[in-house]
Amino acid sequence: MSERRWQFVPRTRALSVLYLVAGVLLVVGAGIQLTHGVAVLTVVSAVLALALICLAGVGLVRPGSGSAVRRR
Fold it and tell me: Residue 12 and residue 20: Cα distance in Å, rounded?
């Protein structure tokens, strides 16, 4: 019986770019909100957005992340 594992790294470059754009937009939005005052949820949002950007970066630089579907 094969185990199904969680996969956090995007499988395609297009999905990695989408994650990257979403992360950048979230960081910019959180940065704008932080200029008006520090709120806990804004800081959490900024940290999660940075994690999303890192995840997108890993998806873009890892080998085999091309647009073709991989066989198992």
Answer: 12
